[in-house]
Amino acid sequence: MKIIKTIAIAVLALGMFACGGKKEEGSTGGANTLDGTWKISKAEGTGADAFMGVSCKFEGSTMSLNEVPSPYKVSNDTITAATVIVDTKYTFKFEGSQLVITPIGTGQKWVMDKQ
Question: Is 39 exposed, middle or buried (0-12, 13-18, 19+ CB in 10 A)?
Answer without folding.
Answer: middle
